[in-house]
Amino acid sequence: MALSLQDKIQDPNQGVYLIGTTPPKQGTDRAQLETIANKLLARLHEIEYDGVVIYDIQDESSRTQAPRPFPFKHTVDPCEYSQLIRELSQLDVITYKSVAQRDASQFNEWLSDTKDKFGLDNLVLVGSPSSTGDIRLSLPDAYKALAAHQESFFLGGVTIAERHASKKNEQQRLIEKTAQGCEFFISQAVYNPQETIDLITSYARTCKQQGDTPKRIILTFTPCGGQKTLEFMEWLGISVPDATKWRMLDSQNPLSESIRICRENLDLILQSCARLNVPLGLNIESLTNRKEEIDASINLYRLLKATMELNLAEKQIA
Q1: Listed residue (107, 150, 108, 147) closest to 127, CA to CA
Q2: Using CA atoms, how far apart are residues 262 and 38, in angstroms rounded to an integer?
């Protein structure tokens, strides 16, 4: 019997391989929604993956004074798109949800609908992008509401290596989120491997000191096709070292170069963290809807999955 995504995430001897995507723009009718979903799944037909991550896209302008490189567009309800992707693919989905827009009562209603109407179990809750603005529900309060809810969910959290680089306490956030119910974590896209290595190392050491078992960290990677995508990555808060920027932008083919960089970065992370006993996973996304970047994300997935599988096999015979 095939393992479920939840089983794989909780078994450190299993690989976990995901594809990340965003729902179509708000106002897309059902027929067109199915067309878009089928087109995505057709692209993924030739690769083996464990599930799809559906993001909840929010306007993050409050987080930074810099102008957004691409205009913000509201999307279809992530739960609706998750349900459709799961029905069409027969695979598990993980649905992101931003919690700041609803109060506790409304969030409880949303949880009931998520389970009863959409049949979804796997959630990643996301807090407000900044401490300013109208925050009706904090992330800790959302965790409490979920824990008290009559339905059960498989809960994940977000981890940000860039935040650890500046505040040096991301490992404690992971441990606190675990106490609040998180069974796994998904990272922001990785372009600065040393920051990710520092985070995983700090997390492993703190878990060992406290007698805790580390939860799985699923590393996100994305291709970058040029200046505009790079600007968007940096606007999102993704750390890209200067040498990496010039290496991509000065290349004859920035997209191909970005794939090589992601492969090297994953190799470095796996080598540096091999003895830390923190189970890792892989999530590949495309930050834009440009066809060449979406196609590149599939090639990136193939390459990085093979890298992860080889690493896992080597660990099991060591």
Answers
A1: 107
A2: 28
216 C-beta neighbours (distance < 10 Å), count: 20
The pLDDT assigned to 64 comes to: 67
As a whole number of angstroms, the distance between CA 155 and CA 147 comes to 10
Q: What is the DSSP string of 156-173?
A: EEEE-HHHHHHHS-HHHH
Q: Which helix (H) or strand (E) holds 201?
A: helix 193-210
Radius of gyration of the chain (CA): 19
- Which DSSP string corresponds to 69-118? SS----BS-HHHHHHHHHHHH-SEEEEEEE-TTS-HHHHHHHHHHHHHTT
CB 273 within 8 A of CB 286: no
How far is it, in rounded angstroms, from Cα 206 to Cα 189?
Answer: 23
Q: What is the pLDDT of residues 112-168, one digit of tens each?
A: 999 999 999 999 999 887 666 678 999 999 999 999 999 999 999 999 999 999 899
Provide the mean pLDDT of the chain. 93
Name the nearest CA neighbour of 278 among 222, 223, 207. Answer: 207
- pTM of the predicted model as reported, rounded to 2 decimal places: 0.96
Q: Which helix (H) or strand (E) holds 186?
A: strand 182-189
DSSP H or E stretch at residue 207: helix 193-210
Q: Region of 277 please: left (phi>0), alpha (psi -120 to 50) or beta.
A: left
Q: CA 272, 156, 296, 36: dihedral to nearest 10 degrees?
A: 170
Q: What is the CATH number of domain 3-315?
A: 3.20.20.220
Contact 149, 111 (CB under 8 A): yes
Torsion of CA 115, 189, 286, 267, to 10 degrees: -120
> Which residue matches tokens 């095939």?
2
What stretches of 239-317 show up as alpha helix (H) in DSSP? Answer: 242-249, 254-272, 291-317
Domain boundaries along the sequence of the chain: 3-315
